[in-house]
UniProtKB/TrEMBL annotation:
One of its GO terms (molecular function) is phosphoric diester hydrolase activity. The lineage of its organism: Eukaryota, Fungi, Dikarya, Ascomycota, Pezizomycotina. Residues 71-84, 427-456 have a biased composition (Basic and acidic residues). InterPro entries: AP_endonuc_2, AP_endonuc_F2_Zn_BS, Xyl_isomerase-like_sf, Xyl_isomerase-like_TIM-brl. Residues 12-22 have a biased composition (Low complexity). This is Apurinic-apyrimidinic endonuclease 1. Belongs to the AP endonuclease 2 family.
Length: 487
């Protein structure tokens, strides 16, 4: 049984081509000359051939290494997040990404794609949105959210690919607050910033732990400057250490950050259960919370894809009710502060974090109907992290934010809908057909891995020890007896 309504809960390797005359050195642009090639260069209207050095910068390597390190830290090589940070304004200007690799947006970035639904017009007060871009400044996330008809949203408060970022500018804060007022968003209730994937609060190495904490605390201070009360983060990885030790380290870092700030609620995201990741079991979330001194400053965000992949079913009314009752028994429904709404490309209990569009994955549309019609979830921010990348006519990746706009309307349409109607069945079948090929592909991968693991397991069985050879009487001497005594 749900113990109380949440409304009454306590706040509880890019390559850059430069000429041989480039000699500038910075802390992040150490370079190595790979080769020299001939290139035609326009000089004063004439074309002349010059030798040009192709250099590899360590910046792109560092970014890749940072991302790889984060994946290793979190122990989640399958993690596929639909949202990518675009705020690279403070990257060394000498290091440019190839234009061909830049991600584009379908249509005008500032074009409204859907009108926001008045929450008061819905049968339940469900605040649905998506993780939008804050490129060019976090204040831009507000217009980006409004453009897709979002009533809640998530955003990275700074680049999530770097350990350090410039401080929040006074003009940014001023514009953020002005746009909040203009669009009518409640920053304290319905904005859910996402922490950097680099941060692992379970880190045992002291230097790395301090680095993670500094990044984490910086985000909390940004939240307070912007009037944001909820802050979502991945708990981290054990790094191979015992789970209880990792849990203790996470709680200690939360306690430390709470003392250094005043109001932000640190919201722990549940994980899918791959590798050494902390937080895939409700018991691990409970154990972290139990060690937090100020219980009003901690909560949980349930990611539906992560929950399903970790073995918590939401796909049928019965399974959903059992999972939520289990969550309430173990963690406590009063700690539930937010949702990430994602279908799953991977099957139940696969421990693979592969987000799918709503209704197209193994969770299916009924899972989201269950969520949209559960009264205790009213007033919580519900954030889409579903894929929106498409291939453009030129083969390049294009972001189609219309997908989010349409999914928000789809989810809103489920509120109060009878799931036993032909209308629901038709929509459910349409979405399942759309995702069938991807589900079959991932299911095949999962099946092959299970078969491979089973074969490895059978080969790993210890062989029976051979019986010791019997000594002949001729071999039994006093010397042998002496050797045995001395062993």
């Amino acid at each position: 049984m749900v113990r109380q309504s949440l409304r009454n809960a306590k706040p509880a390797t890019t390559t850059t081509t430069t000429t041989t005359t480039t000699t500038a050195k910075t802390a992040v642009t150490a370079v190595k000359v790979d080769k020299t090639v001939s290139a035609k260069v326009a000089v004063n209207g004439r074309v002349k051939t010059e030798k040009v050095e192709t250099k590899k910068t360590t910046v792109s390597k560092r970014k890749a290494a940072s991302t790889d390190a984060a994946a290793a830290d979190h122990g989640d090589p399958d993690h596929v997040c639909a949202v990518k940070d675009e705020d690279d304004d403070d990257v060394d200007e000498k290091v440019k990404k190839p234009a061909a690799k830049k991600r584009k947006t379908k249509g005008d970035d500032n074009m409204p794609l859907a009108a926001r639904t008045a929450v008061t017009s819905l049968k339940r007060a469900m605040f649905i949105g998506a993780h939008v871009s804050g490129a060019g400044g976090v204040q831009n996330s507000i217009q980006n959210a409004a453009n897709i008809g979002a009533n809640s949203f998530a955003v990275f408060l700074k680049s999530q690919r770097k350990w350090q970022s410039p401080p929040l500018a006074a003009d940014t804060k001023k514009e953020f607050h002005a746009l909040l007022k203009q669009h009518g968003y409640d920053a304290a209730q319905h904005i859910l910033p996402h922490g950097s994937y680099l941060v692992n609060l379970a880190q045992a190495d002291q230097a790395k732990a301090d680095q993670a904490y500094d990044n984490f605390l910086d985000d909390l201070k940004r939240c307070e400057a912007l009037g944001i009360q909820l802050y979502n983060f991945h708990p981290g990885s054990t790094g191979g250490a015992p789970m209880d030790a990792a849990v203790s380290r996470i709680a200690a870092q939360l306690n430390r950050s709470h003392k250094a700030t005043k109001s932000v609620i640190t919201v722990i995201e549940n994980m899918c259960g791959s590798g050494n990741v902390v937080g895939s079991r409700f018991e691990e979330l409970r154990d972290i919370i139990s060690l937090v001194d100020d219980k009003s400053r901690v909560g949980v965000c349930i990611d539906t894809c992560h929950a399903f992949a970790a073995g918590y079913d939401l796909s049928s009314p019965k399974a959903f009710a059992e999972t939520m009752a289990h969550f309430d028994d173990i963690v406590g429904i009063e700690y539930l502060k937010a949702f990430h709404l994602n279908d799953s490309k991977a099957p139940f209990g696969s421990h693979r974090d592969l987000h799918a569009n709503i209704g197209t994955g193994f969770l299916g549309l009924r899972a989201f109907h269950n969520i949209m019609n559960h009264a205790p979830f009213e007033n919580l921010p519900m954030v889409l992290e579903t894929p929106i990348d498409e291939k453009g006519p030129d083969g390049k990746s294009v972001e189609n934010r219309q997908i989010w706009a349409d999914e928000i309307k789809l989810l809103e349409s489920l509120i109060g809908m009878d799931a036993d109607t032909p209308e629901f069945a038709a929509k459910e079948a349409e979405l399942q057909a759309r995702g069938a090929a991807e589900r079959d592909k991932i299911q095949d991968q999962v099946d092959k891995k299970a078969e491979k693991d089973a074969k490895k397991g059978s080969k790993a069985k210890p062989k029976a020890k051979a019986a010791p050879k019997k000594r002949t009487k001729k071999e039994e001497t006093d010397d042998d007896d002496d050797d045995e005594d001395s062993d």
